[in-house]
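Lecture 7 notes: from sequence to structure.
We start with the chain below.
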Amino acid sequence: MAEISLIEEPDQFNPIDLLRSTILKVAFGDRPNSNFTKQTSTNPPAEVLMEIREQLSQQRVKYIVSSYQLNGNEVDKFSIYLDELLQIYPPPLIELALVETLVDQWSRVPMLRGIEFLTQSHNKLKAWESQPIVSTITPAQFQQIAGLDPTPVFGSTELPPTRPIMRPS
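Predicted structure tokens for the same chain:
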């Protein structure tokens, strides 16, 4: 079977292609250290669904990074640091920290990128460990900035807030 690669370029990002390639990778091999074999059932096992969800969550984080070229000139170091964060924090929380850091850095020219950017995002994540997570952006603003569905980050909201949640003084 030909190797299937996940899309890295933001201008080529297609959620349907991503889902299709992720399902194929997980269901038919191409998984490190896996004893999973092709299933004949129409319902994939729960472990496969969990792995697909995890891969999609991580791909969302990587999409934000690639969309804004946040890795800068330090691609390898940035990738290692990001992988470490993905082992520690849930991907939706990392998504929020990346977007919040983007908003904080928006007016800076040139915009902060690379390890420095990721360090600032990591500092937000550390701060949220010891205090409530208070976002400065709405789900609609998150969607506009990230180009992604805000539901995994903000949860399902029937009535979205009419204004951003402000940081405590």
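Points to note: The helical segments are 15-27, 46-67, 75-88, 91-105, 114-130, 139-146, 151-154. The two ends are 56 Å apart (CA to CA).
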